[in-house]
Every structure is written in structure tokens, then in C-alpha cells.
Specification:
Helix content: 25-40%
CATH architecture of the largest domain: 2-Layer Sandwich
Number of helices: 11
Strand order of the largest sheet: 5-4-1-7-10
CATH superfamily of the largest domain: Ribonuclease H-like superfamily/Ribonuclease H
Low-confidence stretches: 230-254, 272-289
Strand content: 5-15%
Length: 296
Amino acid sequence: MQHRQNGASQEVAAAKAGVSVRSGRRIETSAQKPCLDTERQWRTREDPLEAVWETELLHLLENEPKLTGTTLLDYLQEHYPEHYDQTILRTLQRRVKLWRALHGPEREVIFRQQAVVAQQGFSDFTHPDNPVTIQSKTFPHLLYQFRLAYSGWRSVTVVQGGESYAALAAGLQRALQQVGGSPIEHRTDSLSAARNNRQNVWTEAYSELCQHYRMTPTRNNLGQSHETGGGVRMARSERCTQCMRVTVTRRVRTISFMIACRQLISATDRARLKSRRPCSLCRSLRRPSIRPSTLR
């Protein structure tokens, strides 16, 4: 119709609209214009949930928004075994999905973090997955790990004790000596060894340590572990299969042997970075990029 109003002939207007000349003539002379909205506004069958959706299921969802369609179907089959079967599962799941999108609780928005060369390094303590015994006696210890966000390079230090400042400082300085520089930013997850969480300030010793290595101390917000970025995965990288094969930490004879095995993890990481052949859980490793600094 628009082409005809602009002065085009019936044949030209039909060709531009992609219809036949006969259809174009019929549309032009018809009193009822074609509906441009092709979305169906009516139901093709009765609503199988009409009797229970607003009276029962909505109340369950409002009280517990995490309920799934499968759970609600189990509820219906338990209370109305002769009326609802598995054929309505997809309908129920779509209804729950639509309700959650329109009326459900607000979802937290998390933006993907982009690692920048020489920008961030992470520190964290973790408990080993497998217990270590020395002469049939359990050896209690922690693992301090430092990881570069961009390259994935890491250093592991055995800690005999708790998450103290001495353990943090020793492990961090050892890692910076190994990598030969320091990142611009050093992030932790509110470690008490580095931060006075009651007064919400950094400890004097940790501030001086970061200042000495020209690093800016940062932390993630309390209870927001995803803000640590690679730091969360760093603590779990102890489970790397290829790295664990060289440690043999289930039973060792001496502490020095175990420490040597842990040091071998860092050596294995450095060798893997050079050969560009990462293991299954370290495929994103690249050559470590850090900011050169004078390490004393």
C-alpha cells in the first residue's frame, strides 16, 4: 500500500512487497487490511494449571522462589495423583521461568573480569585436599599460594601454622623473588594477617610491605568471593591433576621432602609456561608478565 501511495504501479508495488500482482490487487481493494502482528493472542488448548497455579503454586513460589518445575510437579502428583502427570512438566517449567523473570527476586549482576598484563596478583591460604603423614603422624599445615591474574603463574609455600602475617610476608616475598618483579595491585580476601577488619584498615606491617614492593593493596568485599577473580580459582588449583602427580603428598618421610615437592609445583608451572603446554586445569596459562622492580 505504501508503494501504491507513492505512485508506483500495481506490478511494481507487488514486486517490491514480494507478493503476486493478483494478491496486491486483492489487498488494495479489500476493506479488511492484513494484520501486521502475527503473534497469537489466544490459547489453542485449555490451561492445565488453571485450577492450582494462582491458588497453590504461586504461594509456594512466593515463599520459596528457588523451587523448580520438577519440585512443583512432585507436589501436584502427591496431592492430586489422578489429575497431573509428566506431560505438563514443560508447561510448568516455562510458567515458573516466566514468573521468576517477572516477579522473582532480583538477581545479582556480575561483570566478567578482564585480566590486564602486570596488573593484579592474588594471595590466599588453602588447606590441602589430602592429609600428609610423617612417620604415621598427621602433619598439620597450610599452603600459601600467590598467583598472577593474567598469566596464571603461581607459587606455593608450605606454612606450618595459621594464616599469620609472617606466613603471608614470607610466601609473598618468596613468590616475588621467583617471578622477578611485582604486579601493580595485590589482592586478598580480607585476610586478618593483612587487614584489621574491625577498623576496616590495612595493618601497618602489611602496608609497609606493599609499599616496599610498589604494590597497591586491595581486597574484595566481605562475602563476595567472586570479586577475587582468579584468586578463588587459585586456592582450588591445588587439585590440578598434572601438578599433583609430582607431589606424592599422601605419605612422606620428612618435611623437607614435602617442601621440595611443593616447590616442584612452582617449577613445573614455570616449565609449562615456557613450553606452552598447559595441563587440563591450567590451559589459560601464558608467559608471566609482571612489572620489573628492585627486589631486596
